[in-house]
Amino acid sequence: MSSTKHIHLIGICGTAMASLAGMLAERGFRVTGSDAAAYPPMSDFLASLGIPILQPFAAENLNPAPDLVVVGNAISRGNVELEHVLDQHIPFCSLPHLLHDEFLQGKEVLVVAGTHGKTTTTSMLSWMFEHAGKRPSFLIGGIAENFGRSFQRGEGKYFILEGDEYDTAFFDKGPKFLHYFPDAIILTSVEFDHADIYKDLDAVETSFKRLVNLVPRRGRIIAFDSGDSIERCIARAFCPVERYGAADGATWRITNLKFDSDRTSWSVVRNGTPWAQFEFPLAGEYNVWNATAAAALAADYGIPVDAIAGALKNFKSVKRRLEVKAEIRGITIIDDFAHHPTAIAATLNALRERYRGRRLWTILEPRSNTLRRNVFQNDLAKSLAIADEVIIANVFRSESIPESERLDIAAVATSIGKLGSHARVIADVDSIVRIAAPEMRPGDVVAILSNGGFGGIYEKLPRRLQSVESESPVEAGKRK
Fold it and tell me: What SS3 string covers 361-421?
């Protein structure tokens, strides 16, 4: 494609779409985009790149007509811009299609896939290659803090990708990662998720089996060492498969795991022989798994162990992954993207390890297409009960989920109470902030869990906590 062309992205504020927009702009294309609502970090990221976000969706956003439209996977028939594209015969494609044709050709493609841990593992792997001087290209579903961005067009031969099992576009309901034709993959986990597009676990496994089937014989698969689903997915691989985890038979076995207040350390035994000592500032056992998977693939591609260790020691995490947003009156406010019961449990356990002895709050917005449904209702209650205080907001756009399928947040709160934690339903962000902020005390840790903007709670709660501190005794008495 000529770099003089105008490309418009419908749904540009998705993490992958924003990353693609940045890559296209760097290539010299004129890039515009539109979305229903823009919020940080991707809105700030696009603004830093000088890429305009048109809001709301409107047919006028495509006048004059662009040369090509990229349709995000969240865009459905009925969207006014999509309908205009179809009516006016404007050329269009999906993100994975354009990414493959314009950026992956001629590269060694390394894909990180799995239900959990993709974004962080992709960020770690990219940083290891960068730290070793390989100058990789990468596209990550979040802002990698070591780079300050979610993409890079490097001069090296490697392209490192977060492989999403979610569908591709309204006209292509297969998973995105099948368009990437990887030379090697990391497989972190396989669980039922994305209940809006997958019927059951078997359907999810089928997608991952197809991904495994794409890896050439000369390639490599690094897979977690436990879980029947992973076993079934890798059973017919044509390339070597290496396992990582704590099992005795793992190729890359984790030992001597230790959690401190400001760092985590562990050892890795490779094929029965001591291989490496690692440490990093992140919390959580799941992050040790992620790091070990990335280290294994990096080592297989010739990255020296000292470079891997140095990269991990200086790894800064990813935006919205256990990200400390504010410290107010000794209260720590943390933003995390967790939106599946397994991920929520891992996040809250990590916070328990990092902030031992402190009261833990969780404020949840049921927003993902899986979490808004009742498929994991019991598991969700068990995960949230790890916290001491739990607040659940209304189900995001609950009217779009049939009542028989919708998450029953009152029932979840009741179940949490039976498990020994205090839980309540508070409908909206303003009410949550008004009611909860005065109850928070120095030493509390507040984990806000959402995969969206959550009504600006990340700004509203710190402001309210500051105002509570400044209230006079008379004002405090009136509030009570």
Answer: EEEECCCCCCCCEHHHHHHHHHHHCCCCEEEECCCCCHHHCCCCCECCHHHHHHHHHHCCC
Residues near 389 by Cβ (< 8 Å), separated by ≥ 6? 359, 360, 361, 362, 421, 422, 423, 439
For the stretch 373-389, pLDDT in tens is: 999 999 999 999 999 99
**Higher-confidence residue: 444 or 43?**
444
Query: Where does a domain end: 51, 74, 93?
Result: 93
Structure tokens at 145: 């803090």
Residue closest to 132 by CA, chosen among 296, 305, 287: 305
Decide: residue 240, CB within 10 A, 0-12 exposed, 13-18 middle, 19+ buried: middle
Tell me whether residue 244 is in a domain: yes
Give the span between the Cα atoms of 445 and 449, in whole angstroms.
Answer: 13
| Residues 177-189: tens digit of each pLDDT | 999 999 999 999 9
Provide the CATH number for the domain around residue 474.
3.90.190.20
Domain hosting 392: range is: 323-479
User: Of 292, 313, 334, which residue sits at a domain end?
Assistant: 313
Residues 226 and 250 in one domain: yes
Number of H helices, E strands in the chain: 15, 23
Residue 147 CB coordination number (10 Å): 16
Q: Which residue has the tokens 């368009």?
A: 179
Where does the pLDDT of residue 479 fall: very low under 50, low under 70, confident under 90, or very high at 90 and above? very low
How many domains does the chain divide into? 3
pTM over cut 0.85 = yes
Q: What is the DSSP string of 133-172?
A: T---EEEEEEEETTTTEEEE--SSSEEEEE---SEEETTE
